[in-house]
Amino acid sequence: MEQEVVIFNASLPLQSEETLYTLAIGGGKWTSVTAQTGEVEAPEAVCLDKWNGSTADARLLLDAKGKIVLPGFVDAHMHLDKAFSLPEVGNVSGTLGEAVVNYAAAAPRFSKEEIKARIMRSALQSISYGTVVLRSHLDFHVKHGKDVAMRTIEAAIEVKEELKPYAELQLFPLLPYFELSEAALDTAEESVAMGVTGLGGAPHLSPNPEPDIDRLFALADKLGCPVDLHTDESDDPNQRTAIHIARRAMEYGWRGKVTAGHLCSLAAMKDEDAAMIIGLMAEAGMGAVTLPGANLYLQGRHDAFPVRRGVTRVKELLAAGIPLAAASDNMHDPFHPFGRGDLLLIALVTAYAAHMGSPAEMREVLRMITEYPARVTGADGYGILSGNPAHFVALDARTPEELLTMLPERRWVWRGGTCLKAAPAKEKWSSALLQGYWEDSCERVDFVQKRALML
User: Fold this and answer.
1) What is the pLDDT of residue 139?
2) Domain containing 400: what range?
3) In contact, 97 and 37? CB cutoff 8 Å
4) Global pTM exceeds 0.85
């Protein structure tokens, strides 16, 4: 029997902050999203803070007490197969170049079982933070033999199927940039037939990027699949493969089917040059992804001060109407030793890197981990709207400002109206005196903030 869930007094900052909402779920979908006239008294409802995650009752009533509810996060650019490989594959210089060389050399040593374990671990960790769609680029080292490339593909497809009830995994093999041979294209075609989502690559690293882009687009056209490319991940302002990619997207009429990730060189070139490229991307209907954590770490390694930091032109891309996602990229591997698959943390890093701290900008940053990547990835039925699947995350915060300040660990992660992870009880100070100080100060600060919001 499908459980009915009703959540009172939920805050939906991406819809309206003028009111709280009552949310109803039935059959795994939103059945109603109703604006309240004020805070609803619901004595029969269980306070979300005190709920233990039990779903035994046919009808579950919860009181969010003003907590934020967001549609499930969408991570539009990850490398799940590389995650947690740092102990095996180091990077002494911290450069992108060394990371590429070291991982490529190590790839033949990784068994399918090891790769699958890394994908499963990193995907589950991301899901635990509230992510419901994960797009992962996959290592595809055909130069070491078809077996080396396909063991990653097979491992990823198996995890995709096993986690299907809990999240959507989209898979994009990274077509080789060193030699995009017929054998590599044939293996990529086989991968699509097996169940990968689309085609990826890093053509700016190729000695002949434009012909490689043409061959990749021709194959994607034949297979009817989307394209998602690492694009101009470089401090060199003359790296401009985004131009050729945009023109090919227009020629094929592929609005919404082509994504460019990184776009670091935009941050290194003159304003007028960047504006031209961004204009082409907008005209082509392309999506884009910024990877602020990894690019802040990797870029500018060869610069004397002032040091370029590599994060793309976030505000300009948004202003052009391009759906721009903020995503995790790598986790604890030679490309990026940090990261944990938490898109709320990535939103904060984006806000720092792009100077986005005004109230409007904070809300835009939240859209960069929800609504915009949903458009980039083509997520069906996305959002907190009647009739859509009830994929969402409730967070222990009542405003976007508090959300990005506290990065609350306490989250309630739901998929299709089923709670996958309930937050533990609030931690307390071991000292009763300190606990009292804490509760009193929080209550007073909350009162002042509520009063400010009403003014």
Assistant:
1) 94
2) 4-71+384-424
3) no
4) yes
